[in-house]
Hints:
42% helix, globular
Amino acid sequence: MTDKTGPTLRGMTWNHPRGWQPLEACSALWRERTGVSITWDRRSLQDFESFPVDELAREYDLIVIDHPHVGQVARENCLLPLQDARLAAIAEASVGASYPSYHWQGHQWALPIDAATQVQASRPDRLGAPAQDWNEVMALAKAGRVALPLRPPHSLMCLYTLSAQLGAPGRVQGPELFEPAVAAEAIGLLRSLLPYLDARDFEEDPIAVFERMAQPDSKIHCVPLIYGYVSYAMDGFRPARIGFADMPSLQGRGPVGSALGGTGIAVSARSAHPQQALDFALWVAGPEAQAGPYAASGGQPGHATAWEHGKVNAATHDFYRATRRTLEGAWVRPRHDGYMAYQEAGSQRLLAGLRGDEPARAIVDDLNRMFRESLPR
């Protein structure tokens, strides 16, 4: 324990136990070690995906962000480009594309502290094994046992994942994001599920679906595409435990192309204590914290040391080992300045098209047009 008295920093994260519990636990240990205190505020998942980072950077020293924001924050100069010799070790041990997803225009804008992508969730007490392929998913759907969160942006995330798994990942540089024929086929796959879904799926994000799924009498036994949440894999977190696995194969193709999620920790360019903020960010993204207090406090680490750690996997019924292939093969979303507005508008357009039974090619043409218009001039 230190006798030092350091500054108090302010941090902003997202309002789910996975988002705030590990940061608060790690901050308490950091205060004992360095004397630097960090208080954490929380924002909703919807705000996390859409609220302007520039506004947060005026009030907070440390901000947890999503990688598609980096093009916008680079233009706004609201985050500090990270420069430190210790970055190399974190980059080397990043799982999948988590670390490079925050690299933009020659700078590193955040460090991955949480790694996630669309995987498969199931009820191990109801299913003998996760669905191996889309045919099994459809059989479960026809039996009324499948859910799929479609609240924006998750409708678009599903289209991204299926298009990539079908062999045509989105072209993040444009000008056309989707290969029309492949994306139309992916929309057809989504449509095949719609008659068997609960109406609530259209209004719910992954957390809401997990909350329904984790009830003892839930009819949801399988969610084929959903962002993994390690909290629900732990005994006692909710009445029923949820298991996680690689996403189902599709036309013989393995778990490649899932739309990458996760979060990174960034330092405000307006912080009065940038070095203290960076020191904490480097520690909390490193192996000691990630495989130790971060994981033990309900976090979902972004560091390979944690993903491969026996104790970390034992506490989560092998959540990490069971989804690693999907995470390693995940696809990085567009990150240009202007993308975040497209993600919201495109998700709404896709959802309206799905609900209105519009021709798939018309939906894809609109999504591609909107993407072209979002690109920097």
